[in-house]
């Protein structure tokens, strides 16, 4: 007679054991990803500490000039250039401006999704990478194989450390970059208000108010 319970235990054990190397591979991949994000973050941080301070009451006039400024980030300057090109075109300027602002905001927030995934996924993978070798280590302990137990415990603890380290760094990068993006979007909305033609500004305000509701 087939022992169904033993078959299920064996099946689950095989699934669990087969996940170890994919988890280790993913943790290595996430480590490389967080290093790339760290480099990008450092470059943007250098850019922002070099920005010339600008008083809040002077920023509207600065953006109204339409000229690239060293007081705002490269994202805002690129948005202002795109806004000026739209102003020179014929047709529904207010609709094009609204679409540009929404597309830019959406793209900036979308760029944060990967960091948000790293914050959640890295510690989870670290935990999975801990539990799998713990199971095989306990099995090795039952058989008196101390060498296998030691190896599995090393894997278990290191995967936890790597997963938590990636999650912590990703959370730090996410928190700071989110504040930068909020500041850039605020400046983009201000630039839109300043650079819109007077006759179109009223229509744009109506569209923006309707979108917020």
TrEMBL record:
Transmembrane feature ranges: 20-43, 117-141, 153-176
Compartments it resides in: Cell membrane; Membrane
Family affiliation: Belongs to the exbB/tolQ family.
GO cellular component, one term: plasma membrane
Membrane topology: Multi-pass membrane protein
GO terms, biological process: protein import
Keywords: Cell membrane, Membrane, Protein transport, Transmembrane, Transmembrane helix, Transport
Domain of life: Bacteria
Organism: Desulfosarcina ovata subsp. ovata
Record-annotated MotA/TolQ/ExbB proton channel domain positions: 88-189
Pfam family membership, one: MotA_ExbB
Name this protein carries in UniProt: MotA/TolQ/ExbB proton channel domain-containing protein
């Amino acid at each position: 007679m087939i022992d169904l319970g033993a078959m299920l235990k064996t099946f689950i054990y095989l699934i669990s054991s087969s996940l170890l190397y994919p988890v280790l591979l993913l943790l290595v991949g996430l480590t490389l990803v967080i290093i790339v994000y760290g480099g990008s973050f450092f470059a943007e941080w250098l850019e922002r500490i070099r920005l010339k301070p600008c008083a809040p009451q002077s920023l509207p006039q600065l953006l109204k000039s339409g000229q690239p400024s060293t007081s705002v980030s490269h994202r805002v300057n690129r948005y202002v250039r795109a806004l000026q090109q739209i102003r020179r075109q014929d047709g529904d300027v207010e609709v094009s401006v609204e679409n540009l602002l929404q597309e830019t905001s959406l793209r900036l927030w979308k760029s944060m999704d990967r960091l948000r995934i790293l914050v959640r996924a890295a510690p989870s993978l670290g935990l999975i990478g801990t539990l799998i070798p713990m199971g095989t280590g306990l099995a090795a302990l039952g058989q008196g194989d101390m060498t296998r137990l030691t190896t599995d415990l090393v894997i278990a603890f290191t995967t936890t450390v790597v997963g938590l380290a990636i999650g912590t760094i990703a959370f730090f990068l996410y928190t700071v970059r989110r504040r930068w993006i909020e500041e850039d979007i605020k400046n983009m909305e201000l630039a839109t208000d300043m650079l819109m033609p007077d006759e179109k500004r009223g229509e744009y305000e109506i569209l923006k108010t309707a979108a917020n509701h």
